[in-house]
Design brief:
410 residues, alpha+beta, Creatine Amidinohydrolase, Chain A, domain 1, Creatine Amidinohydrolase, 2 domains, six-stranded mixed β-sheet, five-stranded antiparallel β-sheet, 11 helices, 32% helix
């Protein structure tokens, strides 16, 4: 069973993104968000934010490990182009949004010398007393905060960037869809490899190699091939008493009947995919497991039934809970769904401890991209979890993920 992708109209999504147009439109959105928040300059350290602001992309095996050798971006109000500080040249690109006179050498902000370099740079770029926002502070930056921010403590740049990122342009959606296609082609090859005796590391090796062969820019997280326990009591201990997810990949060899919850993400042009499916090793689903898939599908359909521009996160959460007999179909430390863009999980997060008031007041705009990932669990089965990605449209949604639910369905 596949999602009905024809029931609703959607934005025009080009087959290939026009990167020059995309970064021009993204830059305009960022400058508008800076003006709305009263920010004169932004310092961006987080990889996804730097990529979003500058168009820079660089190969990463694990985006979470890029710290000391990371690019930094500085945006100044009134300047059409961001400044980009790169610790490397080979394998990186930023030709669309950053002209040559705005590309600079590295800023090593984990160290005092790098922070001093940043302070000198900021004094040259922005006037005294300017309102500055930053998305991350290293220890060395905190120690020198008075020197770095003479106008007062910095604002939170993630709020500014998040406001710009919420609605995606057609070219951004095209990048996300291309990232999904690369991921789906790769996962088709990985799934063929699934058999008793294969290790989780074998699956990861196949995934990373093939994803980069197909055009991935970065591997956003350590691929998850989690063998689910038969009961909560048999699983990894957690503070909330529920299932643990995700657990790191090991050299464990898979056994017949293992239930795998998969979760992977790569980027294309700086934009992420997010892929999750439940797989079985060397077996077909039992009747109970097949019923769980049907229940998961009913929950997804209920949430999608209220998905459209003008709906709220609360609308989707209530629909999913009702379809699950009155209980939340997601793990306590996660969510029913989330946004996606230059990070695998962006605003909004649906059903978190931000609470019902947050969910009820978060209204979906057209052009937002949403990942839905309900979970169904019954002791004795290993549970079921999958993810679907949709674009919010005026009259509903448009699906951009397209991978079968084998061996549970199509």
């Amino acid at each position: 069973m596949k999602l009905d992708t024809t029931a609703t109209s959607g934005p025009w999504i080009p087959d290939s993104p026009d990167l020059a147009r995309m970064y021009s439109e993204v830059g305009a959105r960022l400058r508008s968000a800076m003006a709305d928040h009263g920010v004169d300059a932004m310092i961006l350290l987080m990889n996804g934010h730097v990529s979003y602001a500058t168009g820079a992309s660089w190969p990463l095996l694990d985006a979470g490990l890029s710290h000391a050798q990371r690019p930094v971006a500085i945006m100044v109000a009134g300047d059409e182009h961001p400044h980009l500080f790169m610790p490397f040249r080979e394998g990186a690109s930023a030709e669309f949004q950053v002209p040559a006179d705005h590309r600079h050498g590295p800023l090593y902000l984990e160290f005092d010398e790098g922070v001093e370099h940043l302070a000198t740079t900021m004094a040259e770029l922005v006037p005294p007393g300017a309102t500055v926002a930053v998305d991350e502070m290293t220890g060395a930056m905190r120690d020198a905060s008075d020197r770095l921010f003479p106008g007062g403590p910095p604002l939170e740049a993630a709020v500014v960037v998040g406001a710009a990122q919420l609605v995606k342009t057609p070219d951004e959606i095209s990048c996300i869809r291309r990232a999904c296609r690369i991921t789906e082609q790769t996962m088709a090859e990985v799934q063929k490899q699934l058999a008793p005796g294969v290790s989780q590391l074998d699956l990861s090796a196949t995934f990373v190699r093939r994803a980069f062969e197909l055009g991935a820019t970065a591997n956003m997280l350590d691929a998850i091939w989690q063998v689910m326990p038969r009961s909560r009591a048999e699983g990894q201990w957690t503070t909330h008493g529920d299932l643990a997810l995700p657990l790191l990949t090991t050299d464990r060899r898979l056994c017949a009947g293992d239930v795998l919850w998969t979760d992977v993400s790569i980027t294309y042009g700086g934009y992420c995919s997010d892929f999750g499916r439940t797989w079985l090793v060397g077996a077909n689903p039992s009747a109970r497991q097949q019923d769980q898939f049907a229940q998961w599908r009913a929950i997804l359909d209920a949430a999608l039934g209220v998905t459209r521009a003008g709906a709220t996160s609360g609308d989707l959460a209530r629909a999913a809970i009702a379809a699950n007999g009155g209980t939340k179909p997601w793990l306590p430390h996660f969510y029913l769904g989330h946004g996606i863009g230059t990070y695998p999980a962006e605003t909004p997060m649906i059903g978190t401890d931000l609470g019902e008031e947050f969910d009820n007041n978060f209204v979906f705009p057209p052009g937002m991209v949403l990942v839905l990932e309900p979970v169904v669990w019954e002791d004795g089965t290993g549970g079921y979890r999958s993810e679907e990605i949709v674009v919010i449209t005026e009259d509903g949604y448009q699906v951009i993920s397209d991978y079968p639910y084998t061996p549970y369905g199509y």
